[in-house]
Amino acid sequence: MAAKSCQDGHPAEAFGWAARDQSGVLSPFKFSRRATGEKDVAIKVLFCGICHSDLHMIKNEWGISSYPVVPGHEIVGQVTGVGSKVEKFKVGDKVGVGYMVGSCQSCDSCHDNLENYCPETIVTSGGKYHDGATTYGGFSDIMVADEHYVIRIPENLPLDAGAPLLCAGITVYSPLKYYGLDKPGMHVGVVGLGGLGHVAVKFAKAMGIKVTVISTSPKKKQEALEHLGAHSFLVSRDPDQMQAAMGTMDGIIDTVSTMHPLFPLIGLLKTQGKLVLVGAPEKPLELPVFPLITGRKIVGGSSIGGIKETQEMIDFAAKNNITADVEVIPMDYVNTALERLSKSDVRYRFVIDIGNTLKI
User: Fold this and answer.
1) Is the pTM of this model over 0.85?
2) 63-97, pLDDT tens digit by residue?
3) For labelling, which of 113, 207, 243, 256 has a CA lying 20 to 30 Å from the CA of 314?
């Protein structure tokens, strides 16, 4: 039974996998998507990354989920149809859809190409569209999206390894740019070497920045230095290592989404350094004010990026051969993948091969 009647402008039969309750277990799900409107692009989904926020949504860990939930917002595919007023895309183009599919288009944030900060941002999965319909994500065979929120994927960017850039990539690219941590010769720390952290290292290196990976796990050292090419590695639980690096960094991108102390990280910053949080711990972190005052340091945050900047990021990635390190999986492996993701057992991003393995 389709989730919404194929009346009311939702005639496009769709098929995907959805969570029905807080267990977060996904299973096959038939539903429908809206007709391709005059400014819409219809997309055959080929690959979709699995983000940690998908895990939060399917288990209602943020308290905002409305079931059924079809997750997925790192979506790449091929255009199969365009509305009569679409100007940017044509049938056959390779495209992507990230974390959002709508915004008000009239507020200051929207006017400044910061749709991600619009109070009426419509998220790709688990949101409410303008017509009141629930938004279903990319763990499905087709998508329909307003062309404004669709990203062009350059020909030389692999679709599977490029998919996670639509969330993980822009989440670290945007703060590097906005906080001025993109100047060659700067020294930037990256806290956490997961889905976000590993692409942060790649983007920072491509910008000509000296990168230090900061991790609780000494086991990540070889990976950080030899595989990802970071310049140095710090074990955050080693007081001697941390002390030796005090006051050496222009900025830090903190990707960790669990509880952790900020005081040692603030100590690593130079005077006027910037600690930027992009991970989202479920509980508030303790913020020591004294070192901020005495060093004129900043603790800031950042969330994905606007559509214009997301396109800029994808183009930069293609030019510099930046992709995520991915494990491509079939659709029917997704529940095992989600269990593994909850234990951080992935290097570094799962990507579902929707096009070849999603079967009704």
Assistant:
1) yes
2) 888 999 999 999 999 999 999 999 999 999 999 99
3) 256
Q: In whole angstroms, what is the distance from residue 207 CA to residue 219 CA?
A: 26
Tokens of 264: 């040692």
User: What's the confidence (pLDDT) of residue 2?
Assistant: 47
pLDDT in tens, 312-359: 999 999 999 999 999 999 999 999 999 999 998 998 999 999 999 998
CB 349 within 8 A of CB 195: yes
Secondary structure of residue 360 in the 3-state scheme: coil
Rounded distance between C-alpha atoms, residue 198 and residue 278, angstroms: 13
Query: By three-state DSSP, how is residue 252 classified?
Result: strand
What torsion do the CA atoms of 229, 164, 177, 184 make, to the nearest 10 degrees?
20
How far is Cα 249 from Cα 234, in angstroms, rounded to an integer?
Answer: 12
What is the DSSP code (8-state) at residue 69?
A: B
Buried b / exposed e across 239-263, counting CB within 10 Å, b at 16+?
Answer: eeebeebeebbbbbbbbbbeebebe
Q: Which residue has the tokens 């149809």?
A: 81
Task: Using alpha carbons, select from 106, 249, 101, 212 the residue that is nearest to residue 166.
Answer: 101
Per-residue CA distances from 180 to 177, 186, 215, 359 (Å): 5, 10, 23, 46
Q: Which two tokens stand for residue 147?
A: 């062309």
Beta strands in the chain (DSSP E): 12-19, 26-33, 40-49, 74-82, 94-97, 100-102, 122-123, 142-146, 150-152, 187-191, 210-215, 232-235, 249-254, 269-277, 298-301, 326-329, 349-352
